Amino acid sequence: MTEQNPQGESSCAVDLPISAETQTPPEEMETKAIASESEPIEPSAEPEATAPSGFSGFGFSDALLETLATKGYDEPSPIQRAAFPELMLGRDLVGQAQTGTGKTAAFALPLLERLQEGQRKPQALVLAPTRELAMQVADSFKAYAAGHPHLRVLAVYGGSDFRSQINALRRGVDVVVGTPGRVMDHMRQGTLDTSELRSLVLDEADEMLRMGFIDDVEWILEQLPEERQVVLFSATMPPEIRRLSKRYLNDPAEVTIQTKDREGKRIRQRSITVPMSHKLEALRRVLDACGSEGVIIFARTKAITLTVSETLEACGHQVAVLNGDVPQNQRERTVERLRSGSVDILVATDVAARGLDVDRIGMVINYDMPFDSEAYVHRIGRTGRAGRSGEAVLFVTPRERRFISNMERATGQPIEPMEIPGNAAINQGRLDRLRSRLSDAARNSRDSEEETALLQELIQRIGTELEMPAEQLALAALSLAIGPAPFLCQGDEEWIQQAAAGGRRRERDRDRGDGRRRGERPSRPPEDTMQRYRVEVGHRDRVKPGNLVGAIAGETGLQGRSIGRIQIFDHHSLVDLPKGMPEDVFNNLRSLRVMNRELQISQAS
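RE: above sequence
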């Protein structure tokens, strides 16, 4: 079982400032509690001089307090201080907080305390957007319920054995944590009885919106008993989430966590401008110069994850892939290998990596620009965990540089420009890592004294036979550890400046339409990250670019700026969309109507 920390879920993750654009207006809710790291909300409206400290002032049972004390949890986080009193009273609640503020414990502890013994049907249901997050939340419930051995917690998600989940539900479960799709499956088959459900939690509601689960969530809400407590947590509050809270929550309290600047600045954010043709080489150089003990590289599509991982493996890196094609049991093994250190680099897509919680991640690399700023916030939140510092590097093509300001507004921090590392930076990085490994080995002796004695005897014997001093033997051992490949990078690095300048020239040439015939401007090909589609609406239908952008953005969840060039002709139009569009999204676009005509979208030749 993974031990969870109520101060920050399974670890203390980075707290990024919430953009003013995503704050819920005061008029949205009647009750609003705003908490900050520097101004925690007290559990009592009129605290006494001898007010109880820690978790003892919220009405928790002795068994739960003992469990928390045993695990070393002393003080609740701000979101917990604000949420505990409301949830213990059974109120509905809307919480806006980033990953790492302790929101899992904020809803888990009160829900556990309000469960009734002796019931076989589920009393609490938690919906999470991904399998990984569902497992993480279920582990948190199990950890906090250590003093309540009668409580039973079950995680249900796709990719795991359906029959074993049915058997567990038949035996009786108090808390179910699951993904919307698998929860719906059980409800439709009658294996998940929600007739006695007392509480529902929507965890990371904005992610469920982004991933297209909101319709499923609403279906589940409509099947539940009218008298139930609903708790909604979300990092941001887009209009759809506000609408959901107004429709399904009853007079909810609202808790908004505003984190201090110094906490958000635990992650250093930088960007590298590089043409598409040089991204792989630039990535290799960044890893050589700046790579830490654990790295996650985010790519836009499954195909790109495979290309990147194969390239890095050829360079000698220990790499694993996490995308939608990886089966669930292998996904779990991959995450465990990353956590244990047998894999140093994980190349993943957004959906596959959602809910990842690994303390040793020191760097996140956005190999592809994310679709929107919210995805960027979730990506870089994988580093800087457990109070550590972290680094985030964003690769952008010259055309994508204009989007950097959106990412800066989302995080409230500047994204520093970064040059592609040259040979000197790579060599210094290699020396630093070698020195660190050597220092660790010198400080930490081997577990077996017998092996240590044999190694010492071997060194003495070789030194005597070769009449070689200890320094020369140490140099030979280092050379053996490094291997036969050259240690220092001495390759050509002129391309770094040429690539940056050449990329800017190519973008300008493309914008001017170089190569066109006199009197005619041919259609420019789409960017490397985009795919061109044909839709069967045009000037005859009086369609405007804004009509297409609004309709496509509403159906796919893309932000308008992620949609590329639009060309409107008499009977059809051409639209550039990001590559890797999921098949179900593409199928939904086929029947989407604009100006009362179906798009009938197809890939342009």
